[in-house]
Amino acid sequence: MIDLTKDGDLWTVTLNRPDKANALTEAMLEKLVDIAQDASAARCLVLTGAGRVFSAGADLDAARAGLATSDLWERLSSAIADLPCLTISALNGSLAGGAFGMALACDLRICARHARFFYPVMKLGFLPQPSDPQRLRDLIGPARTKMILMGGEKIDADTALAWGLVDRVVPQDQLRGTVDELSADTLSASPTHATAIKAMI
User: How many CB atoms neighbour CB 50 within 10 A?
Assistant: First the structure.
């Protein structure tokens, strides 16, 4: 349910559970954490999903069994945020709930035009993962963060772009090409050069 492909120094991780809207189980999160911890060997790490939804967040049965409050979410986003390589979320569709964390931790976010964004922690009675509100606030500001986390606001791709939540909106069939475009300079540079620039930023 988690696929990893390596094209030289470009690693692509695909959430591959499209029949369940790529909802994440404990085993899937553990696999993602392992990959993220190993990805310092990559020059660029891309996160994407199969089908027309990036991820609906936690699998509901697993969430009720305790996954919603697991530290795996925070371990995953921290591992991604700490990577020295370029990280890109290629959001093939909607992003919801706990799945926000991995996308917020990436350097760049691009999304398909039909994508929608929502994080219904207020309605579900869970707290967001600790770093998610801060990363979301840094991207879109405190008021808009409260609109999403406290007001239950659901936003479309164009609004996400206008707010700064994503960096580019493209048709779904252009996601791969956009990833290739955005990663080309980093992949062609020396690893130390790319790492140094990311550290400066």
Answer: 17
Q: Which of 42, 44, 48 is nearest to 14 (CA)?
A: 48
> What is the block-wise mean pLDDT of the chain (201 residues), using blocks of 10 residues?
97 97 96 97 97 93 84 97 98 96 98 97 89 98 98 97 98 97 96 93 93
Count other Cβ atoms within 10 Å, centred on residue 117: 23
- Alpha carbon distances (Å) from 8 to 11, 39, 41, 177, 188: 8, 12, 10, 17, 11
Sheet architecture: strand order including 10-15: 2-7, 10-15, 44-49, 86-91, 108-112, 168-170
Q: What is the pTM of this model?
A: 0.96
The domains found in the chain, sorted by start residue, are 2-200 (3.90.226.10)
**What residues does 110 pair with on adjacent strands?**
90, 168
Six-digit token string for 63: 């969430």
Provide the residue type at 64 as one letter: R
